[in-house]
User: Which sequence fits this backbone?
């Protein structure tokens, strides 16, 4: 089966613009708008710091509530590279996320492995089936990131 084409730079520019709009709407409405993605997949806002720029960044991400933990999938980085937010997040000991309703949580990231990853991946694909499609045309194993409650 042929692989789908890799997104173009114009696609990524639009993706970044939509992410900024989503973040604005999410914060303005406390998650009433922008708090879910296609098909109702829940969205949180991840705060991180650019490793090269040192600038604060916010990324809207689909998440699973695996109470008390949250789970995100590092999907959109490219065929052979993890997304920048993933690298930024993993370089930090802790950060904050914002959930719908304005709730903020301090979290520590770690990458799920083995049986835990398989279980969480299946749950993520169930709420957002596009992850399974994306996995068919990337050269990398897509990380499943567990956000543990932080101090």
Assistant:
């Amino acid at each position: 089966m042929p692989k789908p084409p890799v997104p173009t730079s114009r696609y990524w520019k639009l993706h970044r613009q939509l992410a900024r709009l989503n973040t604005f709407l999410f914060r303005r409405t406390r998650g009433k708008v922008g708090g879910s993605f296609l098909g109702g997949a829940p969205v949180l806002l991840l705060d991180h710091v650019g490793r090269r720029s040192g600038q604060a960044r916010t990324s809207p991400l689909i998440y699973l509530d695996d109470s008390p933990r949250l789970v995100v999938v590092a999907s959109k980085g490219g065929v052979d590279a993890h997304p920048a937010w993933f690298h930024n997040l993993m370089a930090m000991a802790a950060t904050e996320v914002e959930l719908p309703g304005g709730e903020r949580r301090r979290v520590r990231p770690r990458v799920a492995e083995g049986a835990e990853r398989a279980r969480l991946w299946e749950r993520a694909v169930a709420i957002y089936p596009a992850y399974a499609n994306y996995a068919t045309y990337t050269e990398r194993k897509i990380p499943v990131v567990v956000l543990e409650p932080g101090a």
Summary: The beta strands are 36-37, 41-49, 56-66, 69-73, 95-98, 104-111, 144-149. Residues 9-29+36-149 form a domain with the Pnp Oxidase; Chain A fold (CATH 2.30.110.10).
